[in-house]
Write a structure and sequence with these properties.
129 residues, three-stranded antiparallel beta sheet, 43% helix
């Protein structure tokens, strides 16, 4: 439980961020959320990744909750009061154990208010810190 208090704070920070209306829309006209996710990751981490690409990608990153989510790359796009969250796995070990996840982009669409409620429930189950 060493990370529980930090995890709880990170989850609550995400809930507060979403409750305040934050979360940018899809940045590329005509691209699906899945295609946008892949485009944002095209040069991620490359030595020659332009700073502008890094900054753009960083605007959409979400679920940065430490060891609990460090095998997942997630992006969030807001469409009015709905959220579209894309996720992909990146660790080699995960891909070896779950080859069907290689290259897959998982997509979740949910009302923002509902997702905030889920996050608040997670934080409540972790207790106060």
């Amino acid at each position: 439980m060493a990370f529980a208090s930090q995890f709880r704070r990170d989850v609550l920070d995400t809930a507060d961020w979403l409750r305040s209306g934050q979360g940018p829309p899809l940045p590329f006209a005509g691209l699906s959320a899945e295609a946008t996710h892949q485009r944002l990751l095209r040069r991620a981490g490359d030595d020659d990744e332009p700073e502008a690409d890094y900054q753009l990608r960083s605007r959409f990153r979400v679920l940065l909750w430490g060891p609990t989510t460090d095998n997942v790359t997630a992006h969030l796009f807001r469409q009015e009061e709905r959220l579209v969250i894309t996720l992909s796995f990146w660790r080699r070990e995960h891909m070896l154990n779950h080859p069907g996840d290689a290259g897959a982009v998982l997509t979740v669409e949910t009302p923002a208010k509902e997702f905030v409620g889920i996050l608040e429930g997670i934080a409540a189950s972790l207790g106060s810190s």
